[in-house]
Each structure stands twice: as structure tokens, then as C-alpha cells.
Amino acid sequence: MKNSYSFILLVLMLLLGECILASQTNEIKSKKFDRNHWKEITKKIDYTEQEVKQKENSTQNNLDFSIPGFSIGILKLLVYVVAILVLIYILYFFISKVALSNKADKSKSVNIEDIENEHIDNLDLSALLKKALEQSNYKLAIRIQFLITLKKLSDTKKIEWKKEKTNYDYVQELSKWKLIKEFSFLTSIFNSVWYNKNEVDLAIYTQTLPHFDLVNKHLDTTIDKK
User: Which partner from 52, 109, 143, 176 sits 20 to 30 angstroms from 123, CA to CA?
Assistant: First the structure.
């Protein structure tokens, strides 16, 4: 993005330089003295009458409000400068708006690395699930649902959650639990969805919810009794 700003500013500066050069060139051309033309237009001039007219107009000349050294070329240059400044502002406004929009989109997205590297107790899984569903990322939503179940199992002391453990390790820990079959099925759902290259749609996600709800509701009642 910074490179884009630099390129646009460079182009605009070059355009401004061209405008200044063109204005100066035109001004120089307009000031070129043509001796032959001067002789032609001054042959029949009566300088006596000209002096009288100059005296009569001396009062009006004293009221001349023109700015010394100011020319049409300078006026054109100012117009060019103002136009380029307006163009710079418009480009900056739109580029900034796009950059802010992209930044906002990134801040709303769920970062998989943060989920994998963070301890399960430090994750706001409900908020992450909501974001995943808002983005229609149903594969990630199923992963978060599975993490919610693992957290409930950890909270009820049925498993000891560790980042390096595998799902098979958790199945072994729960081998004597009365809902081991249901949890094993959840593990199969998660493995088949998460490690599959195919996308997951809303219909598939909806089909998995009753299986998660069955285990989670049972764990919720266990937590409430404590």
C-alpha cells in the first residue's frame, strides 16, 4: 500500500512539473520581441497625440488595481496546482477508505493460528463460533464446536487438555465414560470434516449440531451440579 502511495505521488509531481514547465515556456514565448512587427505598427503613430492621451488617462492609470508581475500564465499555473491538489486529496481519500475496509475485514476474520497456539481456557469460543458462522466458514465452525466440547470435558475433569494431545488420546481417557460412543462419533465427524479438502456447507454443519448438543448438554448438567 505504501508503494502505491509513493507511485501516485511521483506521477502527480511529474504532472505538476510538466504544467510548470509548459507555463514558463508559454510565458517566455509571449515575451519574445519582434522588431519587424514593431516597426509596422508604429509607422503611422502620432506621438504628440499619444502623449496627450496618456496625460488624459493618467488619473485612470493611477486607479489600476492590477498586480505587478501577475500574468495569465501564473493564473493557469495556480489552476493546475489547485486541480492536482484536489486530485491528490480524492485519491488519498479513496485509498485510505479501501485500506481501512481491508483492515476491518481482517480484524473480523478468525485467525486459525491463534486458536491452535492459544490455551483452550483463554479462548472465547462462543465469540469465535459466531464470527465463523457470520463468514459462512462452516468447516471452522465444526472445529470450534469440537473445541467447545473438549473445554467442557476439561472443565468437568473428565480429560486433561493439552495442546500436544491428539483426539485419540482423549478417546482413551474417556474409555470408561458412559458417552464414549457419542464422543467417538464426534471425533470421527471432526476428523472427516477438518482434514478433508472439500468445503462444508450449512446443510452439513446443521446435521452435526444434534450430536454436539447431546454431549454438551450432558456435560452442562454435570457442571451445574458442581
Answer: 176
